[in-house]
Design goal:
eight-stranded mixed beta sheet, four-stranded antiparallel beta sheet, 23% strand, 342 residues, alpha/beta, 13 helices
Length: 342
C-alpha cells in the first residue's frame, strides 16, 4: 500500500467522523489574537525574557480538533496553557465563544475549558484517592446534589474511561501509566467541558496504549461534541486525529491548514522538513522518499533571530528573510503560511 493510499484512508475516516459529529460548524469557539507569553529571567543585573509564544493568532471551531506540532521548546505547551489562563498572557487577546476572557475571572470558564496533562504521574496528587481526584472538580462547582449522586457521577466517569468502580478507592501510584492518563481524562471530563487542551497526552505512554487513548478521545468527542487542541510531537498521530493542523517554530505559528492539505502540500520549509522525517511502514516507499535534513541548532528564545525565525536553518533563505518578519497570509483557501519565499 502506497503512502498516498494510507493518507487517503485516514483522511476519509477522519472526515466521516467529523461529519457525523457535526464538526464542520463555522462557529468559532476559541479565538486567539496576537497572543504573546514572555517569561522574565535575570542574567546578572540585566533583566531579559524568554519569548515562549510570540504573536500567535488562530481560531478553533466548535467540535473540531486542531492539532499543534513542532519540536521541543517551540512553545506548544505554553500556548495551550496560556489559552486556558494557567499562564497569564503578556499581551494579546483570548476570546471564548465571542467573550474576551483575557482578564476575566476564570472560575465560570474552568467548567468549560479543561486540560489533559502530558505526564499523568506528575499531574495526579499522590495523597488523594482516584475518587477524590475526580470528585474534586465536582465539589468545587457544586455539580452533585448529594453524596450518592457524587459517587454515581465518579463511578460513571471511571467507567467511561475504561476503569472499574472499585478503582476509586486506590491511589495513583497503584496504576500503570495508561491507567493514570485515563484518570486524568476522567478528571477533565468531570465538569462536562466544551473545550479540552490535550497537552501531549500520549507521549509518556507505550505505543500499544497510545492507540487506546487516541481512540477513546475520538469516541468521547463524538459523544459529547467536544473541541480539542491536540498538542503532540508525533505527526502521524496528529494527522490521524486532527481536522486542521498548526505548525509552530520558536514561539511562532508558521503554517496552518487542514490535515489533508498540510500533509499533501506543505508550503513552509520547516513543515516540509518535519513531514520528511515521518517514518513510512512500507520499505519501498521509504527508500524512494527524500529525507530533508535540517542544519544547525534551534536559536535561543531569549534572543531569537531577526526577521523570519527559521531563516538561520532554512535551506532557501534570502536576504529579506533576515530583515522582515513574514506575515501569516492565506496562500490558498484555508491554507495559511508565514514565509517570504512561498
Amino acid at each position: 500500500m502506497t503512502e498516498s493510499n494510507v493518507l487517503t484512508q485516514e483522511e476519509n475516516l477522519r472526515e466521516n467522523r467529523a461529519v457525523e459529529a457535526g464538526t464542520y460548524e463555522e462557529k468559532v469557539l476559541v479565538r486567539v489574537e496576537n497572543l504573546r507569553k514572555y517569561f522574565p529571567i535575570k542574567a546578572g543585573f540585566k533583566k531579559n525574557y524568554v519569548q515562549a509564544v510570540d504573536n500567535v493568532s488562530l481560531t478553533i471551531r466548535k467540535g473540531e480538533t486542531l492539532g499543534l506540532v513542532g519540536e521541543s521548546g517551540c512553545g506548544k505547551t505554553t500556548l495551550g496553557r496560556t489559552i486556558l489562563r494557567l499562564y497569564e498572557p503578556t499581551s494579546g487577546k483570548i476570546l471564548y465563544d465571542g467573550v474576551d476572557i483575557t482578564k476575566a475571572k476564570m472560575l465560570p470558564y474552568r467548567r468549560k475549558m479543561q486540560i489533559i496533562f502530558q505526564d499523568p504521574s506528575a499531574s495526579l496528587d499522590p495523597r488523594m484517592t482516584v475518587g477524590e481526584i475526580v470528585g474534586e472538580a465536582i465539589d468545587i462547582h457544586k455539580l452533585a446534589a448529594s453524596k450518592a449522586e457524587r459517587t454515581e457521577m465518579i463511578e460513571s466517569l471511571l467507567a467511561k474511561v475504561g476503569l472499574n468502580t472499585e478503582h476509586s478507592n486506590r491511589y495513583p501510584h497503584e496504576f500503570s501509566g495508561g491507567q493514570q492518563q485515563r484518570i486524568g481524562i476522567a478528571r477533565a471530563l468531570a465538569v462536562k467541558p466544551e473545550f479540552i487542551v490535550c497537552d501531549e497526552p500520549i507521549s509518556a505512554l507505550d505505543v500499544s496504549i497510545q492507540s487506546q487513548i487516541v481512540n477513546m478521545l475520538e469516541d468521547m468527542q463524538k459523544e459529547e461534541t467536544l473541541t480539542y487542541l491536540f498538542i503532540a510531537h508525533d505527526l502521524s498521530v496528529v494527522r490521524h486525529i486532527s481536522n486542521r493542523i498548526g505548525v509552530m517554530y520558536l514561539g511562532s505559528l508558521v503554517e496552518l491548514a487542514t490535515s489533508r492539505e498540510l500533509n499533501r502540500n506543505p508550503l513552509h520549509p520547516y513543515t516540509q522538513i518535519l513531514l520528511s522525517a515521518v517514518p513510512v511502514p512500507d520499505p519501498k516507499v521509504s527508500r524512494s522518499r527524500k529525507r530533508i535534513v535540517m542544519q544547525g541548532d534551534v536559536p535561543s528564545p531569549i534572543n531569537p533571530p531577526s526577521g523570519c525565525r527559521f531563516h538561520t536553518r532554512c535551506p532557501y533563505a534570502k536576504a529579506e528573510c533576515s530583515a522582515e518578519v513574514p506575515p501569516m497570509r492565506e496562500v490558498q483557501p484555508g491554507h495559511f503560511c508565514a514565509c517570504h519565499i512561498v
